[in-house]
Amino acid sequence: MRSRNPVFSRRGFSRDNGYAGFNTAPQAGGPAVGTQTDPYAQGNPYAQNPYAQQDLQYGAPAPATTGRMTMDDVVVRTASTLGTLIVTAALAWALLPVDNANLSRSYGIGVGAALIGMVLAFVQSFKRKASPALILSYAAFEGVFLGVVSSVVDNRIASGAAMQAVIGTMAVFAGVLVAYKAGWIRVNRRFYGFVMAAALGFVLLMVVNLLFAVFGGGDGLGFRSGPLGVFFGVVGVLLGACFLALDFKQVEDGIAYGAPKQEAWLAAFGLTLTLVWIYMEFLRIIAILNSND
């Protein structure tokens, strides 16, 4: 079973059939239609895809890509989502100063934007279909939060931290993509189970640390500061890299199994969540290493 938490769940392509990538891979001639391997194979007595009946009505099959997700669709939607996030982050950086006189106001706006973005992410994660408006709105509010937090760290803790975190995130993305395409990372059911269990344990530990910090003061259990903070930051980056591999697998399976074109928005949503996770962990590591505490 897949989690439907917007951080953990791999949005989209097999909501009612488990995770498509953890079954038998499609053969060279196409996906194994009519089996549980193909999440789009249910309910069609003809060729087990949602367009086959309409094609047979007109006496000839339509092109295989008609109305279905392609890699170009995923790239364009992901670029739109990340572009929205980057633009709002840049605006927040420029328009919400973090000097002593304005820090509280700017940070309050950033936290408020983060909470709105979290709500939008949850709403999209529980919807059965992708909503471009929801996804782009999430990216916009998340961008405001990232812009403020990045400005705080860059201007008050470690100059150049934001660029370093961006470079680190890009390096992880490129490294995981190369490793995945080369077959060095095998995404199967065991891999998925391990990543989900590790991520759940990681988040629960961070929640406990936060509760201790809120009610006990200080840094809680110290999991987000000092040497332990760096260690758990590295663990967070590694978990983000694992989620990227899950994202790549799901995109690959969605294209192979003829996912509807609209599912490309879900791919963009998932990739954006993962990249934000990795960026925030890098930013936290840099802040800890440069902190005077």
What can you tell me about this protein's structure?
There is one protein chain. By secondary structure, this protein is an all-alpha fold. The chain is 64% helix and 0% strand. The protein has helices at 52-57, 71-95, 103-126, 132-156, 161-181, 189-216, 226-256, 263-290. The radius of gyration is 21 Å and the shape is globular. Residues 1-8, 10-36 and 40-65 have low confidence and may be disordered.
pLDDT averaged residue by residue: 82
The biggest sheet, with number of strands, parallel, antiparallel or mixed sense and barrel status, is: none
Strand content range = under 5%
First and last CA, distance: 43 Å
Question: Keywords, please?
Answer:
8 helices, 293 residues, single chain, mainly alpha, globular, disordered N terminus
In short:
Helices cover 64% and strands 0% of the residues. It is mostly helical and 293 residues long. It starts with 51 loop residues before the first helix and ends with a helix.
